[in-house]
Amino acid sequence: MAYETILVETRGNVGLITLNRPEALNALNNQLLDELIEAVGTFDADPAIGCIVLTGSEKAFAAGADIKEMQPKSYMDVFKEDLFTKADRIAETRTPLIAAVSGYALGGGCELAMMCDFILAGDNAKFGQPEINLGVMPGIGGTQRLTRLVGKSKAMEMCLTGRMMNAEEAERAGLVSRIVPKGELLEEAMKAASAIADKSLPIAMMTKETVNRAYETTLSEGVRFERRVFHSMFATHDQKEGMTAFTEKREPKFKDE
Ligand code: CAA
């Protein structure tokens, strides 16, 4: 598929997707969402790709859903097309997915970043859910994911006032894993992605699924799930190889088996 709103490239065993609608600060219109879902799905299905990085421009990761596209829609339009439900597919990606956020991550942009497994922020990053200023609220998971990530008080303030958080506040609040200078953001994200991609992909996928379980279930059920998956890892080649390599004081050679 030829993409018009995103740039897609492969760097070694890492897939890199760059949102590319500079004229609209990477606002998520229908075409961009379709292309993004297709590109993420293609990388996800490729066994040679061990991690995916999603990024935008220096000024904007994404300034939200496309307001100009939404503005004329009626209730029946958005109900019938089930607006934004397809975006949930990004959160269903099995391959680890890193958001590298520089500049604005607002509305749907913040929600897209939160659908990734973790967020690396440039020191110029700004996060917010300003939908209330448009007479709506977050609609791609923001009311739920932001609340789970930063707690009720801060999520409520962000959603009710539309105030933006800078990178330091986002890191303190647990929204981002760490902050790097904006000029080094992509390099740092690629470094983290390569480190992940060099591990065993099925083990990374199982780890991701298990961490995500913490958001879906009780502590005792989550720990039970973890234990079952942990035990199952002893049926893999890569557990044997990883532990044998440690005892033999050498680097492991994982086979994704
Ligand atoms: N949708 C459509 N176009 C957008 C856009 C968006 N979300 N954000 C920016 N743009 C467009 C602007 O209209 C402008 O285009 P024109 O020159 O053709 O008018 C261009 O991008 C550049 O934007 P600005 O001139 O506004 O740039 P700025 O530097 O002055 O301001 C900004 C930057 C503060 C991010 C400002 O653009 C802004 O407030 N954008 C909207 C942010 C927002 O409200 N996001 C939430 C969207 S709703 C949503 O996401 C719903 C949901 O949860 C699913």
Automatic annotation (TrEMBL):
Its EC number is 4.2.1.17. InterPro entries: ClpP/crotonase-like_dom_sf, Enoyl-CoA_hyd/isom_CS, Enoyl-CoA_hydra/iso, Enoyl-CoA_hydra_C. It is an enzyme of class 4 (lyase). Keywords: Fatty acid metabolism, Isomerase, Lipid metabolism, Lyase. One of its GO terms (molecular function) is isomerase activity. One of its GO terms (biological process) is fatty acid beta-oxidation. Pfam families: ECH_1 (PF00378). Gene3D superfamilies: 2-enoyl-CoA Hydratase, Chain A, domain 1, Lyase 2-enoyl-coa Hydratase, Chain A, domain 2. It catalyses: a 4-saturated-(3S)-3-hydroxyacyl-CoA = a (3E)-enoyl-CoA + H2O; a (3S)-3-hydroxyacyl-CoA = a (2E)-enoyl-CoA + H2O. Belongs to the enoyl-CoA hydratase/isomerase family. PANTHER family: ENOYL-COA HYDRATASE, MITOCHONDRIAL (PTHR11941:SF54), ENOYL-COA HYDRATASE-RELATED (PTHR11941). Could possibly oxidize fatty acids using specific components. This is enoyl-CoA hydratase.
